[in-house]
Amino acid sequence: MAGSGSKACWFGLGVLLGAAAGGALGRSARAGPGQREPRRSDAPLLPADVTSDQVLTDAATDVLEYRGFVIHVFCHALGMGRFRALCDIWEAGAVVLEGGAPPTTHATPDEARAAAIAWAQQWVQRNG
User: Fold this and answer.
1) How far apart are CA 7 and CA 23, in angstroms?
2) Domain coverage including residue 87
3) N- to C-terminal Cα separation, the chain
4) Rounded distance between C-alpha atoms, residue 70 and residue 91, angstroms
5) d(Cα 79, Cα 65) in Å, to the nearest integer?
6) Is residue 103 part of a domain?
7) Scanning 30, 65, 70, 118, which has its CA 20 to 30 A from the CA of 16?
8) In the predicted model, what is the mean pLDDT of the chain?
9) How many domains, in total, are found in the chain?
10) pLDDT digits (tens, 9 = 90+) for 11-67
11) Cα–Cα distance between 41 and 22 in angstroms, integer?
12) Could you tell me how far CA 101 lies from the centroid of its own chain?
């Protein structure tokens, strides 16, 4: 067949190769989940027993006033035993710093909040 110059032979060869490739793809698509590679997700791993302290929220976990500035602290769970807190700092009803935070993670939400509050207070002392 390879030596033949007939267009029909080449067409037949293409059909056979297409059918073989399609069958192979069909078998791989029907393979069970245990036979495929697991999907990897970039989403953080959260504990199975998520508590209110570990839930990602849009509401500030702490709001305090310091030297005329209002500090809003948001605590986020990044994964098992990893928490980070961010701060928005307001002055006279306007945001002067949004999403500021120390560059570390902490083992508990309380440690993360305390570090973020201390960081925000230092920011106010330097910039206020």
Assistant:
1) 24
2) 62-127
3) 85
4) 6
5) 30
6) yes
7) 30
8) 75
9) 2
10) 665 666 666 666 655 565 565 555 554 444 444 444 444 444 444 456 778 999 999
11) 29
12) 18
Cα-Cα-Cα-Cα torsion 88, 89, 93, 94, nearest 10 degrees, comes to: -80
| One-letter amino acid for residue 113 of the chain | R
Q: pTM of the full predicted structure? A: 0.56
Q: Which residue has the tokens 């973020």?
A: 116
Q: Say which amino acid occupies 4.
A: S
How far apart (Å, rounded) are the C-alpha atoms in residues 128 and 124? 5
* pLDDT score at 5: 59
Best CA proximity match to 73, nearest among 117, 119, 126, 125 = 117
User: Both 35 and 76 in a single domain?
Assistant: no
Q: How many residues does the chain have?
A: 128
